[in-house]
Automatic annotation (TrEMBL):
Residues 236-409 form the Cas10/Cmr2 second palm domain. It comes from Cyanobacterium aponinum 0216. This is Cas10/Cmr2 second palm domain-containing protein. One of its GO terms (biological process) is defense response to virus. The keyword Cytoplasm does not apply. The lineage of its organism: Bacteria, Bacillati, Cyanobacteriota, Cyanophyceae, Oscillatoriophycideae. It holds the Pfam family Cas10-Cmr2_palm2. GO terms for molecular function: nucleotide binding. Keywords: Antiviral defense, Nucleotide-binding.
Length: 587
């Protein structure tokens, strides 16, 4: 038999290469359809099964792949193709002959050239013996596609430019046609940009179906969307989330499933069925978590698209929602709350034993792989002004995600394996002169002397409740407590700016006045000693507040827990005061 892997590459560049939200949305939709709708249409034609070609949404996709009548096992004498995985930008399947494997790759790559110019898609296959472990073939085909992708030319080589050609206004590629904008200006655009824009409304319709049962609504078209996001929101949140440890789980999947069957044929069948279920379950969990998280917009998060306010929509657009990945643009004021809800809901969904159509497969795998109920995820949140370059904001969100992922190095069990733990990092861009995260954080680190280091930030924060980290070592639990998100939110409440709208003269006893916060802020940049001196000046006057704000005894600083294995003799003092001050308008 032949194991076929089809995968897109360079997705981030394809989706986020321009600052036009309409093109970002359309590019995401095109990437999604490569491994789902288009592939199923091709296979449906080959096996003459019209049911596979029926396209509606991810629910129907899941039902078709799990239905043995629509996707029969490859052992069936009459079956020539079996789909194992079909997700956004990727598909894994089995064929009985080499010609069919080659034909599928040829047809899907041709369809992508026609319908999604600019996207990179690669297909490879390996031959394997059904009476030997299929997981060996899976690892082999993944190694093969890495080599194939590294040898491909960039998609830009398909669009060579000549001096006499006009350039696309958004992509820089050679223009292929003229588009008339709302001001009746003639705008040259490339075929790549044209295709992305034409797919944007399809994405909105698909997402709208996803949340219809929740009584929410997305914009009906991209014109409404741009009007809302560019004109009616003061801040935009760019949220980029990703599951923890999924790469290793997929790579060693056979080690994390109950498989006591005797013959390789039976073991391979069990492996395929569970891998398919696990992949589909991940998709379902992300969608369910997303639907739960958007409830934060239900009350005051809606924005009107009409003057009479009869048609209201959610101020959030999912750009990527598949597998364990999530990228959204939303109302910046609610971005942190949305992200927290998504991470917690993702943990809960993956810990369920009654997921629709797929049961408890994720919990079964996570128990063996991570010794925990369910999986976890991390997120980066960049909060920017509406006209801030989107691609730059996304790059910042990606850097923040990488920062949040460092949690895996500090929350481990006694076997030095990562304990399932969610975290988030955020940054509010007040000054667009520099958005390099390393430089931003570098300016918030002070070297007092050779042995003492001061950090004026505490991010990232651990979102997972401490009672779910019982498998972690004593140090890891202490470290997670130090960076606890809920404790941080309590500090933000003590600095909230809502107090200035209150007429209650006793409010000064509940909140730290802005003038005192500003004095503390200035003092902190002069170092720990100066910051603590200013803090102690107001300690008695606002004692009910300062006790809560203090990280340690009458100090805004606390010694950062450092693992003894790191052999670091420096003392690092950390404060979350500036983090809390930054977040007062967003929590």
């Amino acid at each position: 038999m032949f194991l076929v892997l089809i995968e897109t590459s360079g997705n981030q560049n394809f989706i986020f290469a321009t600052n036009k939200l309409k093109e970002n949305i359309g590019a995401s939709e095109l990437t999604y359809r490569v491994g789902t709708q288009w592939l199923l249409e091709i296979i449906g034609d080959i096996v003459k099964n019209p049911n596979l070609k029926l396209w509606q949404d991810s629910d129907l996709l899941r039902q078709n792949l799990l239905n043995s009548n629509h996707n029969p096992p490859i052992e069936d004498d009459k079956q020539s193709i079996e789909i194992i995985i079909a997700v956004s930008g990727k598909a894994l399947l089995i064929t009985k002959d080499e010609e069919t494997a080659q034909g599928i790759i040829t047809k899907i790559t041709k369809k992508c050239l026609e319908k999604a110019p600019g996207i990179n898609v690669t297909g490879v296959y390996v031959e394997f013996d059904w009476n030997k472990p299929i997981q060996d073939a899976v690892k082999q085909v993944y190694r093969k596609i890495e080599i194939a992708q590294s040898n491909l030319f960039s998609s830009e080589f398909r669009f060579l430019k000549l001096p006499i050609l006009s350039h696309c206004d958004t992509s820089g590629l050679p223009a292929s046609q003229i588009e008339i904008n709302p001001e009746n200006d003639k705008i040259p655009i490339s075929q790549v940009s044209f295709t992305k824009r034409n797919s944007a409304n399809d994405s909105l319709k698909r997402m709208d179906k996803l949340v219809q049962k929740s009584n929410f609504k997305f914009p009906e078209n991209t014109n409404d969307l741009e009007k809302n996001f560019e004109e009616k929101l003061n801040w935009l949140g760019i949220v980029h989330a990703d599951g923890n440890g999924l790469g290793q789980i997929f790579f060693k999947f056979e080690q994390f499933i109950d498989n006591d069957l005797k013959s390789f044929s039976e073991k391979n069948r069990d492996y395929i069925n569970k891998l398919r279920k696990f992949s589909l379950a991940l998709d379902l969990c992300s969608q369910n978590a997303f639907k739960e998280a958007i409830k934060v917009f239900k009350e005051d998060g809606k924005i009107s698209i009409n003057e009479n306010k009869t048609n209201e929509i959610l101020p959030i657009i999912p750009l990527v929602l598949g597998g364990d990945d999530l990228t959204v643009v939303c109302d910046g004021k609610k971005a942190l709350e949305f992200t927290e809800k998504f991470l917690l809901a993702f943990e809960e969904e993956t810990a369920r034993n009654d997921l629709e159509d797929v049961g408890n497969i994720i919990n079964e795998v996570s128990q063996k792989a991570l010794k925990s109920d369910g999986l976890s995820a991390c997120a980066g949140v960049a909060i920017v002004k509406p006209h801030f370059p989107f691609s730059v904001g996304y790059d910042l969100a990606e850097s923040l995600l990488k920062s949040a992922k460092t949690v895996k190095n500090n929350v481990q069990n006694n076997d030095n394996k990562t304990v399932s733990c969610s975290a988030l990092d955020f940054h509010i861009v007040y000054d667009s002169s520099g958005v390099d995260l390393e430089l931003i954080r570098g300016r918030l680190e002070l070297k007092e002397n050779e042995n003492i280091h001061t950090k004026l930030y505490k991010r990232p924060f651990v979102v997972t409740p401490s009672n779910k980290l019982k498998e972690a070592t004593e140090f890891s639990q202490k470290w997670a407590k130090f960076y606890d998100w809920n404790e941080f939110k309590n500090k933000v409440k003590l600095l909230t700016k809502n107090k200035r709208n209150s007429q209650n003269e006793n409010d000064e006893k509940k909140y730290l006045p802005p003038n005192q916060s500003n004095k503390l802020r200035s003092a902190l940049f002069r170092g720990k000693e100066s910051g603590d001196a200013q803090f102690q000046l107001i300690y008695k006057r606002y004692e009910n507040i300062t006790i809560e704000l203090a990280e340690s005894d009458k100090s805004l600083f606390q010694i950062t827990p450092i693992n003894s294995k790191e052999n670091n003799k420096k003392t690092v003092y950390t404060t979350s005061f500036l983090d809390a001050l930054d977040a007062t308008d967003f929590l």
